[in-house]
Write a structure and sequence with these properties.
The protein has about 375 residues and is an alpha/beta fold. It has 13 helices and 13 strands. The longest helix is centred in the N-terminal third of the chain and has 17 residues.
C-alpha cells in the first residue's frame, strides 16, 4: 500500500464486484451477511454544466453500473449544482434528508462543502469524493492522477515547440478554478515541466472554469503581451481552450499557437483535427465512473475486501489524512491518437467526429 500526497500514478485496472463472492471478507453471496441488500440508493452530486462530460458520461455510466451491480434494484439520485457551492450544499442536505445510503460528491468548492460532508457523516451516510478531493470526513476518493494531467499537458507543449524552445518563448497559463483542488494539481504538474524551459509571461486562475472567463483573461493577456508574442497557451481544460481560441481569433490571429486542453470533449477533438487546438488529455470516464459506482455499492453492502481492493492508495486533504483512494492514469490526445483513444474506447463514433466540416481532416488520419 502506498501513501500519496494528493496524486501519484496508479493502475487503471477496474476490479469487478459482481460475482466475486466476498462480503466482509467471509463466505460467498449466499452465506455472507451484507450491511444491506441490492436496494441501494446512491446520491450523485456533480459540480457544473459548462463541462459537458458530467451529463454525457459520468451520470449515465454511474447509473448503469449501479443498476448492474444491484440486479437493477439500486438507483441513483442525481443533482448538478451548475457551479454554485451554495446550491450543492443544499442538494447534499436534501440527500441527507432523503436518507440515501451513500453519496458520490464532486465538489464545486472543496473547502466550502466540508460542513455538509460532516453532516452526512453524522447521519451515518458515507461520502466518497469523486473526481475532486473534498475536505471534511470523506470515506474515500477516486479521481485521475491530476498532477500527471498537468505534466502531460506541459510536456506536450514543449514537444510541440521543439528543441529550439527556450526562455524567449512566452507562455500564457489558463488555469482552472481556484475553488477546485484539482486545478492546483494540474497547475503544479504543468509548472514542473515548463519552469526554467520557457517563460510564463501571464497566468490566470479562471473563475468557475467558464469559457467566457477564459476568453476575457486571454484578451487581457493579448493586450499585455501582443498577439505575435505568445508562443503557446496552457489551458487546463477543453472548455477554456475554446474561450482562448475565440479571444485569439477576435484579435486577428489566423494560425493558432499550440494550445492544450483536457477532457477530450467532442468539440475539442474536432478542433484538434482542424489544427486549432494542439492536444487534450484523454481520461477514461468509464473507468473512473464505473469504479466509483463499485466503491459506493461495496461500501454500503459491507464488501470490505472489495472496497479495499479498489482503494489501495492513500491521499491527504487539508482536513483529513490517509484517505483511501484510487487514482486513474491519463494520456495525451493529439491528432494521431484520436482513432486509438476516443474512437477505440467508444466515447465517440467516427460519424460523430467526422461531420462535413471535418471529413477531409478525418481522411488524412485514416478516420472514416
Amino acid at each position: 500500500m502506498r501513501r500519496i500526497a494528493m496524486s501519484v500514478a496508479v493502475s487503471t485496472m477496474v476490479l469487478p464486484l459482481a460475482g466475486c463472492g466476498v462480503l466482509n471478507g467471509a463466505g460467498d453471496d449466499a452465506s455472507a451477511s451484507p450491511t444491506m441488500g441490492d436496494e441501494v440508493t446512491v446520491g450523485l452530486l456533480l459540480p457544473e454544466k459548462a463541462n459537458t462530460r458530467y451529463d454525457k458520461f459520468d451520470y449515465p455510466i454511474i447509473k448503469s453500473k449501479v443498476a448492474e451491480l444491484t440486479h437493477k434494484k439500486g438507483k441513483v439520485e442525481y443533482s448538478n449544482a451548475d457551479a454554485s457551492a451554495s446550491t450543492q450544499a443544499d442538494q447534499l442536505q436534501r440527500m441527507i434528508d432523503q436518507k440515501v445510503n451513500v453519496i458520490l460528491l464532486d465538489a464545486v468548492d472543496a473547502h466550502a462543502i466540508a460542513p455538509a460532508v460532516k453532516k452526512a457523516k453524522d447521519a451515518g451516510i458515507p461520502v466518497i469524493a469523486y473526481d475532486r478531493l473534498a475536505e471534511g470526513p470523506i470515506d474515500a476518493y477516486i479521481s485521475f492522477d491530476n498532477e500527471l494531467v498537468g505534466q502531460v499537458q506541459g510536456r506536450s507543449l514543449l514537444e510541440r515547440l521543439g528543441s529550439s524552445a527556450g526562455l524567449s518563448d512566452k507562455i500564457v497559463m489558463m488555469n482552472g478554478s481556484p475553488t477546485d483542488p484539482n486545478a492546483k494539481q494540474f497547475k503544479e504538474g504543468a509548472l514542473s515541466e515548463l519552469t526554467g524551459k520557457v517563460t510564463i509571461a501571464d497566468s490566470f486562475d479562471t473563475k468557475d472554469w467558464k469559457p467566457e472567463n477564459a476568453e476575457s483573461n486571454m484578451a487581457q493577456a493579448i493586450g499585455k503581451l501582443g498577439k505575435a508574442n505568445i508562443a503557446a497557451v496552457y489551458s487546463a481544460n477543453d472548455g477554456m481552450a475554446a474561450g482562448v481560441i475565440k479571444a485569439l481569433k477576435n484579435a486577428g490571429v489566423a494560425t493558432m499557437p499550440p494550445i492544450t486542453g483536457q477532457d477530450a470533449e467532442l468539440d475539442a477533438v474536432q478542433r484538434i483535427l482542424a489544427g486549432e487546438q494542439y492536444m487534450s488529455v484523454y481520461k477514461s470516464y468509464p473507468d473512473e465512473a464505473e469504479a466509483a459506482a463499485q466503491m459506493a455499492v461495496a461500501k454500503v453492502q459491507g464488501k470490505d475486501i472489495q472496497f479495499d481492493a479498489l482503494t489501495q492508495d492513500r491521499v491527504d486533504s487539508p482536513t483529513n489524512k490517509q484517505i483511501p483512494a484510487k487514482l486513474v492514469q491519463v494520456s495525451a490526445l493529439t491528432k494521431s491518437k484520436i482513432k486509438d483513444t476516443v474512437v477505440a474506447d467508444g466515447i465517440y463514433t467516427s460519424a460523430q467526429i467526422c461531420t462535413a466540416a471535418y471529413k477531409s481532416a478525418c481522411a488524412a488520419i485514416g478516420l472514416r
